[in-house]
Design a protein that fits this description.
The chain is of the alpha/beta class. The chain is 42% helix and 18% strand. The protein has 9 helices and 7 strands.
Amino acid sequence: MHHIDVRIEKDVYDANNAIADANARHLKGHGIRAFDLLGAIGSGKTALIERIVPLLEKKGLRAGAIAGDVYGDDDFKRIVSLGVPAYNANTGKECHLDAHLVEHAIEHLPLDNIDVLFIENVGNMVCPTDFRLGAEKRIVVVSSTEGDDVVNKHPMMFRDCTIAVINKVDLAPLVGANIDRMESDIHRYNPQMPVFKTNMKTGEGVEPLLDAILS
């Protein structure tokens, strides 16, 4: 029985990855660079989009977004209010986006009016790691308010992502979180991963982060 479970799981991932590769080709065909945003609820994924969109506009780049949520449209509304095209992808019971949901979302976006697409995954530190969506980089956002052991509790998330963001650095002293510990934990699991420390309320640290995303 266990052997069958493993085989089915592999088939699910293989099918997902084939669609993810097709998504990547589709977006590239329209000249779009796509980036995943992963992290827990409240870590600052939507706030990051809110900070980055005006910076992209200064560079003459047009943003778009797919907002993934189990239910509701709170993040979607925040993104739409920035004046950029967005699609709300509700997963129902699933705790992650998959490549098929993203494929469906892409069909609803004006691809010729988008240069940079952010795919904001469901707020979860476990499920999204196994499902590639078709983006060129995966950015994981954690916040000091999640506790400085958050990285240690989710090693796979950091092994599978490209860029790490430690957000809400201003609140670290208030919640007793050690930012240096978070950073060293990240580098234990992914020695090459660049780490950016941000405060989305002020925008501190966002410009160098965007440079790394677009590099």
